[in-house]
Queue: 2 jobs
Job 1
Amino acid sequence: QVLLVQSGAEMKKPGASVKVSCKASGYTFTNYYLHWVRQAPGRGLEWLGWFNPRNGDSKYTQKLQGRVTMTADMSINTVYMELQRLTSDDTAFYFCARVETEASDFDYWGQGTLVTVSS
Amino acid sequence: SYELTQPPSVSVSPGQTAIISCSGERLGSKFVSWYQQKAGQSPVMVISDDSKRPSGIPERFSGSNSGTTATLTISGTQAVDEAEYYCQAWDNRIAVFGAGTRLTVL
């Protein structure tokens, strides 16, 4: 079955960076985009961008341009989302989600990774 | 930037029909997906491409989209359907989510 398993919770200080992983299994890794969506505590869903394992392309929301990088380790079917220069506004659950094309529906989601930014 | 508007909350009695709306400019020309999120869990897609029900989603969930409004309908609502529901569409290669609707089954 399709599984997206994310890395564990992180606690970071303001100004630091965080790298969250999302390991995919149960399907052909290169056939689907992996997107990242975050959700601040008690808030709604916010799309962050995507990574295409087939060719290494990525696209990010303009809001985080310059601070976010999405990469992959193809040998272990894992995508990473790194966010730099963290502030308290980045405190949120971060989800990876599978999408068949660049812009279709999010059919499978990871379990979420809580990133807490606090001094 | 593109926006999707949902009512903050909808209440329904068990067995009744719940209707959750999602409005946006020219929304009928886009595909809309709906996601259910229960407390402490990841979102689950319940409707894709306006009205398609993924495998494993009960038949009581249905969707439509026309004009400026997409609608998620839950017929014969059950207590287990109590959750936050988000609509989502794409605009210029950017995923946009509605703010979410809290469905309460009284």
Job 2
Amino acid sequence: SAVISQKPSRDICQRGTSLTIQCQVDSQVTMMFWYRQQPGQSLTLIATANQGSEATYESGFVIDKFPISRPNLTFSTLTVSNMSPEDSSIYLCSAPGQGWPLNTEAFFGQGTRLTVV
Amino acid sequence: GIQVEQSPPDLILQEGANSTLRCNFSDSVNNLQWFHQNPWGQLINLFYIPSGTKQNGRLSATTVATERYSLLYISSSQTTDSGVYFCAVSTDSWGKLQFGAGTQVVVTP
């Protein structure tokens, strides 16, 4: 398994500002993932964060809006920049468990519930 | 990319009833997981089941990889089973997941 700590758990932000979400994993992992869940919707992958290289973004997501840092093998941050009400979502980070690569089960942080006003 | 379809989209159960949730996927996968999202938004891992059958208490799951579907069984449902159940699959070895749309389950007393 993996224990993933994410913070903040929730925040209310003014439009035009930025919020940085932190994600800490209890073991070293090669890849970490960031997902967005818009209200009433499923989870969509934003990007893959690989230590030592730039993040890989999925279609529809860009680095200027969602810059990601991955300074070491246990930590990553996601920033939501220049926020608008449409960014109100739950943001979740994920990483594989300690059984990787034989076991590719993914684990998730508690999520960050963001409301932009 | 791979498509993941879940059915039914909504399910209302009386406490004590049994139910089956289905997940169909469009390509071969090396990972399939079932999650329960509670009302606070937290994702709870239920099963890691790329193939075969597993049971955990009142829940069990079966994945038939050759036919590209998985089933989640809830027996003797309780109000605490309410929430959204997600199926998610991966075609790589890194843990990157493609989620289905989910099944919203409401268990009434």
